[in-house]
Write a structure and sequence with these properties.
- The chain is an alpha/beta fold and 201 residues long.
- The protein has a single domain, classed as Maf protein.
- 31% of the residues lie in helices and 22% in strands.
- It contains 5 helices and 6 strands.
- The protein has a 6-stranded mixed β-sheet with strand order 2-1-3-4-5-6.
- Helix 4 (174-180) crosses helix 5.
- It starts with a strand and ends with a helix.
């Protein structure tokens, strides 16, 4: 019997990353839209809170185990913005070009040494029996003023990780990004809970 896991995301890029990160598990990852689950309002003030909202909604609607990621960029010079509102920083949900334009404008007078930032990812997993697990992963780095690279999505062309070689996230291959990223760290941290839950099913 195929084991199924509902991924609570409407973002095709994020779904692809989730599938790649969980590829080693014998689990079929199904997008919430494929099962007719609408996206719930993400109105929590933390990444963890929003991830739980989405995972709980998918579990409640389908009865299946559900996983959700809520992630974003925190820029120190901007007091942590855009934070939990990263996807809708410029207004419309998921408009990467507008969000990046607003970010660059906000940092126009901030010198490079003060452009420290981090990507944050909170991953929530709700098992078939309703047991909940939440973990967090981060990727420290800084924001540059010109985009580089054609991979990734969101703020990736403007973010350079501290543990890399000076390339932006958008200049990394998907495999390199998953090995270094906030989302990769969070999903690696949640895997033991998933493995245990499916072993017990």
């Amino acid at each position: 019997m195929t084991r199924r896991l509902v991924a609570a995301t409407a973002n095709a890029h994020k779904l692809a990353e989730i599938q790649a990160l969980l590829d080693h598990l014998d689990v079929e990852v199904v997008a919430m839209q494929a099962l007719g689950v609408p996206s719930p309002p993400e109105d929590a003030e933390t990444f963890e809170g929003n991830a739980l909202i989405k995972a709980r909604a998918c579990h409640a609607a389908t009865g299946l185990p559900a996983i959700a990621d809520d992630s974003g960029l925190e820029v120190d010079a901007l007091g942590g913005e855009p934070g939990v509102r990263s996807a809708r920083y410029a207004g419309e949900q998921g408009d990467d070009a507008a969000n990046n334009a607003k970010l660059v404008a906000a940092l126009r007078d901030v010198p490079p040494p003060r452009r420290t930032a981090r990507f944050v990812s909170a991953v929530a997993f709700v098992a078939a029996d309703g047991t909940e697990h939440v973990v967090r992963g981060t990727m420290e780095g800084h924001v540059v003023d010109r985009p580089r690279g054609g991979n990734g999505f969101g703020y990736d062309p403007y973010f350079v990780g501290d543990d890399g070689d000076g390339r932006t996230n958008a200049e990394l291959s998907p495999e390199e990004k998953n090995a270094r990223s906030h989302r990769g760290a969070a999903f690696r941290a949640i895997v033991p809970a998933l493995a245990q839950a499916f072993a017990d099913a």
